[in-house]
Amino acid sequence: MLDPFPFPAPLVLQQAIRPFADYFCLTTLPLHIHEVLFFAFFYQAINAYLSPPLSRALFPRAYAALNQRSRINWDVHVVSMLQSLLVCGTALWVIWCDEERGEMNWRGRVWGYTGAGGFLQAMAAGYFLWDLVVSTVHFSVFGAGLWAHAVAALMVFSLGFRPFVNFYGPIFILYELSSPFLNIHWFLDKLSLTGSNLQLINGIFLTTTFFFCRLFWGAYSSWRVFGDIYRAMAVQGVLYGTTAPSGAVVGGAPADYGPKSDIMAFAPPEAERLVPVWLAAAYMGANLVLNALNYYWFSRMIQTIRARFEPPLGTKGVGKGGAKGEGKGAGRGERGEQPMMARGVYADGRKTVEVEKREVRTRRRG
After folding, report:
1. Which pTM does this prediction carry?
2. Sign of the C-alpha dihedral, residues 252, 228, 164, 25?
3. DSSP 360
4. Cβ(349)–Cβ(172) under 8 Å?
5. Tens digit of pLDDT for each residue in 190-242?
6. Distance from C-alpha of 67 to C-alpha of 64, rounded to nearest angstrom
7. Is the separation of the CB atoms in 42 and 12 below 8 Å?
8. How many Cβ atoms from other residues are within 10 Å of residue 247's Cβ?
9. If we measure between CA atoms, which residue out of 224, 193, 189, 187 comes closest to residue 79?
10. What's the rounded Cα separation, in Å, for the pair 80 and 297?
């Protein structure tokens, strides 16, 4: 499938980015650099020029009551909400409509390229480029963790421009299906709807989509991509340096795609189609870490959502003591800690769930 963006990258922009792309072996980046920049500026426009007036119009009291830190977070969540809906819709469209992608064998899944897949990579890279800038400018608000996440996510999605495992880009982007519900959960807290029926229903959708998209589907997709990368290394060979040796000979059967196949148009020649060890290790290692974090975030998410509601479904008020001040810490002025969800971020490229603890001091009753 061809790139759906309405116009190609200007030649001057392609020439400007080519030295950078050649140095890092990002072969298809010059074809999509205008899309990366377009989406980065698009999200900045939403953050700076659309979210503030729209939020004042729709939620005048709640938005006006926010302090500067919370207002920055609010506008970022608006961008995150829009981005997750946009990128998930595009990923589903690519999965369902890109016939060339659907016909890929394991070689195509590792080295193949389609214009629609490159466009989706550019959408994701543009968002994380914007996210990196915002996390840098507002470092005191988002901290080192989210800044490092933005760096890592941008690097991971940039690898797709080699091209490398472009086939799995739409699959892992579907992690974002849980993100709209995570953003809604955050907005409901700011709108004084904590513990409401609406937040309960949203919490059910949040935990369900998070479990199936990130834990179940994510683990299955990771197994598939690991299998394809391992097969590429076993059949084609392994590259320990940075460039393929001249006249390299590889084992296995000849490629299933012809030399003029559009899918393999940007793949290295068959004799040089070796998987760099650093690339396989970086991609697979990052994937394992993100999957492990998903399980941790899911457990914390369950705790955080339950803390919003009364028993038996929730844990609100549990351990704080009864009406007579009974319970641990009651009547002694001791501090308890309650987990609170501070901001949604997604994995795989992509934001995660940041959970913080709020201190609760119980007062002595006379």
Report:
1. 0.77
2. negative
3. E
4. yes
5. 999 988 899 989 989 999 999 998 888 888 888 999 999 988 888 765 544 44
6. 8
7. no
8. 7
9. 187
10. 18
